[in-house]
Amino acid sequence: MAATLADVAARAGVSTATVSRVLNGNYPVSAVTRERVHRALGELEYVVNGPARALAAATSEVIGVIVNDVSDPFFSIQASGTQWEAASADLLAVICNTAGSPSDELKYISMLLRQRVRGMVLTGGSREEPEHVRAIAKLLGQALSAGTRVVMCGRPAPPGVDVPCVTFDNEGGARTLTRHVLSVGHTRIGYIAGPPGNTTTTARLAGHRQAVQEQGLDDTVVLHGDFSRASGFDAALELLRTSPDLTAIVAGNDLMALGVIAALRQRGVRVPEDISVAGFDDLPAAVDVVPALTTVRLPLDQGARRAGRIASGTEAVTSLSRLWMPAELMVRESVSAPA
Q1: What is the pTM of this model?
Q2: Is residue 27, in this structure, part of any structural domain at all?
Q3: Which ranges does the record mark as transmembrane (predicted)?
């Protein structure tokens, strides 16, 4: 039996009027209440019942793109590539910025489903908490049932959800990068990872550790940031304080690496003469910083464009397609042999 508005209200512990306000977005509702309502909507599969089920076959001319932070070049490149392919197919791309909030990710997916979007692209790393993974799986299952094309770009599909995945070689790229740092003579390396519980963080840290273990070295000093420049800056200062013997710092992405270089410059530490620095992603700023950043290049635009074509329906693939995007080591001036 299809869930009703009253069922959702009862599950969320609110009134039916509050559920309507959340659905329509026409009246202020607290963030805590919105999250409870959206969780109830997902648990009861409300978005694929009632009028939405009857209209499931009538998709709109919209592609939804879920990003973590559109101001981050990593995500803006992917959003731009996907939008370009949607526009080429005469479709409108709607960019949904989650700001790293798992509840906002669920909220935006639910909202896109209510708009009966033609396709949906989920970019970047995904949260690894089991409850969130189950909630995402349920929503994506509803999307597929409603005829929406779903593509994962840079993140794995939840267990039991068979959708095309554009897969970047985060683990292999990180392994190759750390092997390079080790090959020029560094044995005391600090690593600044992304946020814990994130699939991209986990893959890149695993690749780094594999390279270190291959050399028979003890595990490196690991701190976590949030992939922002500011977190790289703060982590570098902490590493200088707690591990003054380090000769190299590897960051989990370029933005954090740029923060590391700024922090070292502030403390009068030369790069690479005193400490070598490496990043990941090869964002445009990587070649402009002084010294130019040794990093790993991911084909972000190429991968995003392919995801956009699949979501738009202009490129046909099977639901189980795993579209591999290789990583490439970019050796530049920020890494050299230790003094």
Answers
A1: 0.82
A2: yes
A3: none
- Structural domain harbouring 39: 1-44
Q: In whole angstroms, how large is the CA radius of gyration of the chain?
A: 22
Number of domains in the chain: 3
Instruction: Please state, in angstroms and rounded to a whole number, the distance separating the CA atoms of residues 4 and 153.
Output: 34
Instruction: Give pLDDT tens digits for 78-108.
Output: 999 999 999 999 999 999 999 989 999 999 9
- The answer to whether residues 33 and 85 belong to one domain is no
Give the pLDDT score at 50: 39
Residue 252 within any structural domain of the chain: yes
CB 228 within 8 A of CB 256: yes
* Residues 307, 167 contacting (CB under 8 angstroms): no
Amino acid at 157: A
230-280 pLDDT tens trace: 999 999 999 999 999 999 999 999 999 999 999 999 999 999 999 999 999
What percent of the chain is modeled with pLDDT above 70?
94
Calpha distance 139→132 (Å, rounded): 11
| CATH number where 114 lies | 3.40.50.2300
106-142 exposure pattern, b = at least 16 Cβ within 10 A, e = fewer: bbbbbbbbeebbbbbbbbbbbbeeeebbebbebbbbb
More confident residue, 1 or 106: 106
What is the secondary structure of 274-338 as a DSSP string?
Answer: T-EEE-SB--GGGGTSSSPPBEEE--HHHHHHHHHHHHHTSS---TT-EEEE--EEE--TT----
CA distance 252 to 230: 13
